[in-house]
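Researcher: Please predict.
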Amino acid sequence: MPEKESKAEQIAARIALSIDEGVLAKGTRLRSLRAAANAYGVSKNTVVEAYDRLIARGYVEPRHGAGHYVMGVRPQPTDPITARQAEAVDIATLLHEQLEHSFTTRLGDGRPPAEWVEGSVLKSHLRNIASGHRGLFEHAYESPIGFMPLRETLSRMLDERSIAVRPENVLLTLGANHAFDLIIRQYLRPGDTVLTDSPGYYPLFAKLKLAGVRMEGVRREPDGPDPQDLTQKAQATGARFFFTQSLAHNPTGASLTLGRAHEILRIAERLDFMVVEDDAFGDLMPPTAPRLAALDQLRRVIYVGTFAKILSASLRVGYVAASPEVIGNLTKMKMLTIVNSSGYVERIVHTVLNDGHYRHHLKRLNGRIKNAHLAAVRTLRKIGLRPWLEETDGYYMWVTLPEGVDDIELTRRAARESIFLAPGSVFEINRATEDQGHLRLNVAYIDDPRFINFIERELPRQSPT
């Protein structure tokens, strides 16, 4: 139970409200300590504490020998960084809900259930750490580029995807989001414009908003970004970067086709922009799946990977593979901002990847995803919802809502029943005018009876198409 406000805080809040509402104008002298104590029925010490709080909050200034005077209504922050931070936090509200774990039914979660990933392949390694296993770590700062044996392993794994990269051109990060942050800090400035998938990855939108970077959304189609839309917006804006997720796209689950990949790279070459390719589900996808980095060989593609979606969201390990120049720049930026990443965690991931169990884990996880997809399609048909695509990769299905249904309002109603939904509009850059007609659903939870019951009560059934 929250503690009751002190008398001093109650008095300070009451006076602050009077100042905010203009009842006490700028320059007004507050009551003397004695008069205020009598008026509020408290001691002089309580009034002193209340006035001190008002001084600290910028409402009141003391004048030696003359009392306390109102400084005026506190101005709203106009600092552009403060304003950008507020907008970024607003965009990332969905992320906050995921981190708080306050919902019983988690259709909107971006991660798989913990029992799908953490209960098997990680357990023995974490037990070793908990039991005080020694000899694995050195008590020293690590190289900012990251643990060399893990980078060597990643080099071999990427080679299987036809991405030829030496270990010295792989930078370890604290996940994909940290990789995006480094790229934004290094190469973008307030007022720059970038292109992104639309719908696309909303935490990236929040980071770009925080950096004061303008965004133009490139329409996402079932086989990848729309080449015509990409061309028009690249020409109109002069954007130098395009952020895209090729495989198991978040939020639609769609994957890039080979023909579309070639088109994207031809446009990037002709209009001279860099491509940041997010491959968050790379280990779950076939090595032969079309990847921009494989076709381009990291000349103008910066390739980002992570283990958060496949091993554990708590293991903050990701990586960037890129040209020597880009890796050099990003390594310096990493060193300046966080010094280095966690050698402990990087060693755990290296051990997991090399102990012979990881491939079994991926096979088991893919089986769970496939079964969940089949069950999800059956459930959606039963309750009258249409997926944008029935055959998708990864954890997500992009579900079309009946005409006239507001996704935000539906999400609010679901939250009152402890059901967490991810409204489609948060994945759009212009939330005020763009898509209001979709939900991103996690296939692991679609057949939950509470969700089924909620949808059947709340939504009109759609006619089959």
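Model: The mean pLDDT is 85.
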